[in-house]
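Quick illustration for those who missed Monday's session on complexes.
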Amino acid sequence: MADKKNRRLEVVIKFKNRDFSTLRTKLLADSSREYYACLLGKRQLVDNLCIITVADIYFADAEYYQNQSVAALRVSGEFLRERLLEIDRRIDVDTMIDVHTHPFSQSNVWFSGTDDRDEINFVKYLHDEGAKNIFYASIVLSQTDYKARYWQMDGGGRIYPTPALIKTQKIGESIPSSDERFRRKAVSSQKIDDMFNRSVLALGLDNMRRIANDQIISVIGVGGIGSIIAEHLIHMGFNHLNLIDFDTLEISNLNRIVAATYADAVKGRVKVEAIRDNLLKINPRAKIFAFNNKVEDAPIERVIAASDWIMVATDNHASRFQIQQLAFKYYVPFITAGVNITVDDGKIVDMSGEVILIRMGDRVCLTCLKRLKFNEIAKQIHPDKNVREGLVRKGYVQGLDVKEPAVKTLNTHLATLAVDTLINQYIERQRDAVIRVFEDNIAPVIYEDVDSVRERNLSCNICDI
Ligand SMILES: [Zn+2]
Ligand SMILES: [Zn+2]
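Prediction with zinc ion bound:
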């Protein structure tokens, strides 16, 4: 922990689904001159991570260009002042991000001396205007890559940039950075372990590189579904997993938790640690981190903020609510998987489950889909014990100690569907579906629940960002 202060700031600029490709398409359509756009975003700091979430994109209309040629650009002060006034007015944004193109560069783009000078002058201007709470970053686009940076001024008035990485909701939308610091990790130079030869045959080398290359997947809840998801991810070639669960193993878990042994259960080992140790036996080169925590615990915020995807396999509504809050705060897309088994009079009357895909910008979330039960959340997080117990007593919610029926075969279907949904984000073989249902009643079927999506609350204040 001693070196914590010296850790370099890691800056990531994150876009909503489709926004980055819209931005590039529009700005790069005419390669005869430079174009400009201004993004408004929110800066989120957690530990040494600085995540700038992009809320809005403003394209400068022709009238705002004072000078526009193949290698020069000047946008009117009026256009920029309007944006600054808007940041001042709004509470959901505090950062301005300049974007301009170098259409003459095919790749390996860099900020020019003029760019440096203009941007440093802008930081000075913000400082002189006393706009201390307005942050500033910039992006330059070539035809195929980009460079991005975040500007700061230190106590001594020195103005300096930190290179920034751009992340999109879907990896297919992303393009490489030409910054040395990030190029070392470039997808195209990634070696794929021999262990995944057969996966490469199925999914293709480039797709496997995307999956194996620096993607961080957090699995929340490593019970009956989450442990299978985690094992699937290791077999599919993901190299960096975070396992998050506060529970310990019991003998009664052994009918469904993958990678947990009888000896682990007898010892009452922490679930995430037992599962991590056993998954590392499958792929000792993978980075698997075990967090014996609840999602509400402070260290988990950074873990989630730094993730590329969250796989949610907890049936606890308060946890799912908390995960969704963090996901929207840091623009981390997530996939939830859950099952239902209803037994009446000793007979199974329903055996089903669903997988839900939530990405920022898609304007759909667990809240407007009515997949979060607020009475359950109140029971789980209400500070007053009497209220919590009262909700159970009044029959609004089940008691905490109710043991849900569980069978591994059903969990396996849903875990597989969830991981397939994730893989599809990289290989884009199938059309995306927000909700996929697996039903195993009259006969096993998988279908898309379009009704829930159509009937969702369209003025949702969580996902309308
Ligand atoms: Zn430039
Ligand atoms: Zn919503």
